[in-house]
Amino acid sequence: MNDIKKSLEDLFDDMIKNIQFFKKTSYHSVFKEKYEENRELFLSLSSFVDAAEESKKDRIIKELATVIPDYAREKLASLSKRQKEISAIDYNMTIVVYIIPMLLYDHHPVNEAIADRLVSIWNETKVTGMEVKKETFEGIEGGFKKGFCYITTAVCESQNKPDDCHELTVLREYRDQYLMMSEEGQRLVAEYYALAPSIVMALNRREDSAQIYDGIYQEYLIPCIRYAENGKNVECKKLYMDMVHHLQEKYLES
Q1: What pLDDT digit, counting tens, does each position of 14-50 carry?
Q2: Could you point out which of 50, 61, 169, 184 has its C-alpha 20 to 30 Å from the C-alpha of 103?
Q3: Residues 104 and 142 placed together within one structural domain of the fold
C-alpha cells in the first residue's frame, strides 16, 4: 500500500510538469505516453483492491482516493500566498486533465470508483478552493474543438449553425489570443472546463432546452460577441463567466 501511495504522489508531481502540454497539438501524445509509463500503477490499484476482502474494499478505495488530495494540500501549505494562487491553478488542471482521465481510461470499475471518490474528496475538502469535475480523455479531446465554447457550441447547434459559424470563430479567437495569455485567464478556462460539459448535459435533458438556449443566445452570447469584436476583453470575460455561474446555480445546484 505504501508503495502505491508513493507512486500516486509521484504521478501527481510528474503530471504537474506536463500542464504546459495541455494544448490541442500536444495533449493527445503526452497523455498516451504518460499513461503507458504509469500503466503498471493503474493495474496495481485495481489488482490491490480486487485482492482485498469484500468488506475492506470500500475503505481501501477511500484511502487510495485520499492520497493525492492530502498530498496536494500539504504541498500548498508550504507555499507563499502568491505561490499558492499559481499552484492552485496547476493542481486543478492536473486533476481534471490528467489524473482523473487516466484513472478512467482503462474503464476498470475499481479505478472508476477511485476517480469518483477522489473528485468528491477534492471538492469537499476544498484543496484549492476550486471544484473539479470528472471527465474522460475522450471527452477532453472532443472538448478541444469546443474549447472555451462548450455552451456556445450547444447554443449554435440548437440553432442549426455550423461549427465554423461567426459566434464560435470569434470566441475561439478570444480564448486563444486573450484568455490563455494570462494566469487568471487560464484559471477561468480551467474553471469553465470543469463546469460547462455538465451544464450542457443538464440542459440537453430538458424538454425546453431549445428555449433556454435561445435565451442564452440573446442575453449573453450576442453581447459577448460584440464585446470581443470591439476589444472589450474584460467585459466579455465577466459576462461569459456570469453566464456560466448563473447556469450552474440554476441547473446544476437546484
Answers
A1: 999 998 787 667 888 999 999 999 999 999 999 999 9
A2: 184
A3: no
